[in-house]
Structure formats: structure tokens, C-alpha cells
# Entry
Amino acid sequence: MTFIWLWTDFLLWVLFALSMIAVVKIRGNELLSQKWQKIFAQPLALSAFIVFAFYILIGLSDSIHFRLDNNTTTYSVLDRALLPALEAEEKTYSTPLNFEQFSKEYLDNGLRGRVHLNLVSAEITNASDNTKNLLSISANALFYAVSIFVVFILFLAKFTAINTKNNRSAFVTIFALIFFCTWVVLLMPNYHILGTDKAGIDVFYKAVKSIRTGMIFGLLTTLLALPPAIILGLMAGYFKGKTDDVIQYIYTTINAIPGILLIAALVLILQVYMDEHASDYASALERSDLKLLLLCVILALTSWTGLCRLIRAETLKLSELEFVQAAKVFGVSNIKILFNHLMPNVMHLVLISIVLDFSGLVLIEAVLSYVGVGVDATTMSWGNMINAARLELSTDPVVWWPLASSFIFMFILVLSANLFADRVRQVFDPKGDDNA
Amino acid sequence: MLAFLLLNLDKITKMWTYILRRALYSIPILLGVNLITFLLFFMVNTPDDMARIQLGAKHVTQADIHTWKEEKGYNKPLFVNTDQSGAAILTDTIFYQKSIPLFQLDFGHSDSGRNINKDINERMWPSLALAIPSFIIALITNIVFAMWMVMLLGTKLERMSLIFTVALMSISGLFYIIIGQKIVAGMWHWFPVSGYQDGFESWRFVMLPVLIGVVAGLGAGVRWYRSIFLEEINKPYVNTARAKGLSEQQVLFKHVLKNAMIPILTGVVVVIPSLFMGSLIMESFFSIPGLGSYTIDAINSQDFAIVRAMVFLGSILYIVGLLLTDISYTWVDPRVKFK
# Structure
């Protein structure tokens, strides 16, 4: 077994490590940990965070790639977990949790009928059997979920000081997630949970695999946009004068170009470049991964300006305050003033902008794919799924499940991110409407 | 009248010099935009690459590329032409030849040979027919809902509707379009599914996209206006107004709304000129032959001349928007000084 590190894998894990360091630092700082406790004290925010963390967990498990010795395919940890869905091959469409294909065709015996799906046990031949089987699997899943949940609660009660009574909504969320997991684990070897698409590929597999793409869009873009935004914003606000003029000029100019057009133009150029140098990449996976990363770079290039402007304005105010003046008088170097004295005081803006931008970036991925400047066609993403599903809506009867699946997976991620972001803004923004 | 003019002469000249200075300030920005687009479209992506795309075939000879470049005027050096002498060293280059017409708003011909200016003149009307109603209706709906939520401040209903707006803005815009088109037009047959017709009949085709656009923007829009109103509502003048015994409606609509105009204008006026550009997504979903779908088609056929023209046009309109914002401040807020 050899591990394969894609660029985005690497950066995602770097990001993870950075956020772990941040957590440790926050725990050591009384003021900050109080603020974070305040965030999690709101039941809605806590539940949203748990769902969000669950998505991140899936995204991370999809970011460890390896190749088995006797095999040429590259798998991720998530692929191995979803193996039944990945390997089951059907011929064409089937509705969620069905036992036969969606459309009728001529069978071997000359009659018109629906072909039985490969993945579903051959013993199930009619709808009522199917329902019975599904119910019994669901009941099993519920049993397992309750058992795991009880063990989990007992574990928490025994080894931690978490009050199990005050966090009802959080525990409801955790239970829902556990139940979802057991249900999926039990169903997957026997059913296509969200049906299959035109090529007979499992829709659930595609929707889950798309989580990583959405995560990378939302997280890596902000990570890449932070350094220019912070450094230029601090410099403009602190040095003022010529430096400020130049930096303001740069971001006004970039702002003046309509965002989506600038992105489209950059991606077009990127596509031309990658097509010409197609032979430089070791595999299609690496090629599509690089394209994903460069897309994030492009989005970062167009999106750092907003935060930069905010940081500049805040630094302008801060640099007039006594502690900065005092540092100057004591002969502290400019670089030290910038990074030791000013930067910690604008970090709340950075945090707010990270959480607020995340959901917008996840949503824009779908739009970009529609415009034709999104991720590579071989990358699984919600945008690509929606794009492919548009034509299916005009068929009769309607093929609705690929579209619905991608929308629901996307909606839950964006909703939880938005709810959490809202709370973070409330607590960290001094102007925030902290009345909830 | 004359007396009024004479009294205010000082102020008026100050205002005009202010506007003029703001206008002059936008020239370097336009130059920067031009430089960026040029770097993107001609340096990163050389004329040779463009020729290969446009000629399409895999077996393009160097001679084919050369003829194509000659036809389109791309056969010059990029920045400095060492074959020429005098001013021509700088003027007989692609940069100069392709930039000057842009500043005169002459976009030339697309890579496929169409006259871009003529296309823009034709296609801006359907774009406006869609963009202006969307803009106005969205503005009014968002403000009304935001006001309503501010009135309910602190109640359970307000908290529910706040969560509802978060849910609304968590749904992908594509969802609203696809579902709206499928259900309202496809199943109920209230409106045509897509297409466009010039003249008065256009309203039938524009209704559904306008409706969808308003609903899709509702979540984010309401929250934005709400935060503006909330910032105003804690100011002392609101307390004074309430203490005078004004009703809550009067306080909100007469006092808060008026004072909130400044932050509202910052966000709103700047987008007005850009309405010309139309909406990429809406227009292509509903096959409205506006500038948005024009741009999308150009992106899909990799027509760099059109994309470049639209980027430049969009930037000009944005800069005009900034200028209008500055002017509108002087109109709503007498405290603004022309410095």
C-alpha cells in the first residue's frame, strides 16, 4: 500500500493542523475561551457546529489517498468505507431504495419489464417485500444507534464534566447523526440509498464524495486569501500615506472588475493552459486535483479585497491608540508592531470573515460549474451533479433524485455553516446584535 | 432663483470640483483594469493559443495561425515594437492598438467576426427589461420585510423569521431557478418556461425570472437591511422620537428609514449601472437574449474578444456606480463635506 498525497489533501491537513493549534491557544487564553463558550452556549449554534464537524470529518476521511499493491486505482479512506456503493454497477437509473430499475425494457424472456438491480438481494421481487425488508433494516439500525448512543452518554457522564441535561439539542443532533450512520452502514451493502444515475452509478456515493470538493472550496479559498488580506490590510492601515494609496488602488482596481467575469476569464485561461500541458500530470486524478486547487487560488485572488478593506479600516483606528504609540516610542520595530500588537486585534474580523465566506463559496461552486468554469468534469461535486441533472428534469417521468440529493447535501452543509457563522459574528463583532 | 444660485454658488462649485476630482480618480483605476485584462488575455494566453482555439482543428499549421493573427490584428509585439521608430515603438503594438479603442468604447469585432458594439446595443434592452424590475421589486420587498422584522424585535416570531431567512439564503440560487421553472412554468403553466419577445409582450417572459430573482435574494437581502436598521435603532434620536410619543411605525418609516439611507445608498447605488450587464445565470436559464447570456455564450465558445469587452464594460459601469454613490451622498446627507 502506498500513500498518495494530492496538493489539496496536503493543504486540507495543514489547515486542520492549524485549527488544532488555534484550539490549543484558545484554551490557554481566558478571554477567548470565554467567548467560545458563549458561542456554544446557544443550542442552535452547538448543533450546527456538530453537523458541520461531521461534514469536516467526512471531508478529511476523503483526503487520505492510497493505492493498494495489487491495484492501479487510487482509493481514499472514504472510498473504502463506501465500497459496496462504489463497486455495485447498475445499467441505468433507479429510484432511491428501489429493487429494480426505473424504466422498463425488454427482458431475456421477451417480455417488457424492469430489470432487477445487481446490488439488491434476488429474493426481493415485489414492492411489499421491499418495504418489509427496508423496515426491518431500519429497525435494526435504530437498535444499534440507541445502543451506541447510550454507551456514548455513559462514557461522557463517567469521564467528562459535560452536563448531559443542559445540552438537549446537541444530543438530539448527535443521536440523529449516529442513527444516520448506522442506517447507511446497514443499508449500503443491500441498496442504492439515493438511487442510481444515468450511468448506473450510486447517487449517494457521488453526493458524499462531493463533500470534500465543497469543503476545499470553502476552506482552502479563505486560507489562501488570508495572507494577502491580513498583510496588506495591516500595512495600509499602519503605514498610511503612499503605502496606503498603493494598496487601496490595487484592491479598488480588482474590485472594479466584475467578480464572476474575472473568475470566468481566469478559469478559461487556466483551461487553455492545462489542455496544452496535459501530458505533465501523472494521472487524471492529479490533473483534476490541481485544477481544483487553482480554482481556489483564482477565487482567493478575487475575494481577498473585502477583508483587506475591513482590516485596513480597523488598523487605521487601532494605530492611533496608546498601546501602539507606546510601542513606537519604546522603539519596537514596525514588523513587531504589525504582527505582535496589531494583528491579534484584528483577528476577530478574520474569524468572522472566514465563517461568513464559507457558505457563499460552497454555493458559488455550483454556479461556476453551471457557467462552465467550475471544477473538472471528473471531479465529483454538487455543481457537476446539478449541472448533469438539469436535463433529467425535463424527462417524463421526472428523474428527481440526483438533483434533490445534491441540493439537500449542499443545503445541510451551508445551513449549518450559516447558523454557526451567525453566532460567531454575534459574539465576536463588537457591533454585533448580541441580544439573542 | 438667481439669488438662491448666487448664495449657493460656492457650494455648487465645490460640489462640481469634488465630482470632477472623483471622476479623475477613476482614470488610473480604468488603466489598471485595462492592464490586468491585457495581461490575462494576451500574455498568459498568447494570440497563438487563441488562434488554435478559434481555428479549432488539431492540425493547425503555423501558417494558419499567422494568417489568423494578421486578420485579427494580433501579429504585432505585445508592448514594445523594436522594428519601428519614434512613438510607433509603443503605438504599433497589440497593447496600444487594443487598448485605445476600449477607452473610446469601441469594442471591435469578436473572434468569430461579430460586431461587439452592435451586439451590445441590441442585447442591453432585454437585460434591462429583466434587471430593472428585479432590482426595484427586490429593493422594496427586502426593505419592507426587514422593517417588519425590526418592528417585531425580541419576539419569538422575529427569532423564527431570522432562522427562516438563514434557511432561505442557505439554498443554492440554482435550486430556486430550476424548481421555479419546473413547477410554476412547467407544471402550472402560469408563465412561458423560457424565451423572449421584444416590446410590450416581454413582461410575460420576464415575470417568472423576476419573481425567482426576488425570492432567491430575499434571505440575504432582508438580513442586510435588518442589520442596517438595527444599527440605527440604538441611536439617541430614536429614543427622542419615541419619547415624543410617536408611534413605532412613524419612528421606523420616518426617522430610521431616512437615516438608514446613507448605508443603504452605499450598497445600492453602486450596482445600478451594472444592471446593464444583466444576470449571467437568469438569462441563460430563461433564454433571454441579453448581455448576460451573451457573456455566457462567449465563455463557452472561448471567445476572448467578447469576454474582454464585457470585463472592461463591467468595470466602467462599476466605476460609474462608485461615482454615483459619491454624488448621492451629497444629496441625502448635507453633512458630507467636499474635501
Chain A has a mean pLDDT of 86. The beta strands of chain A are 2-4, 65-67, 74-76, 105-106, 112-113. The longest strand of chain A covers residues 2-4.
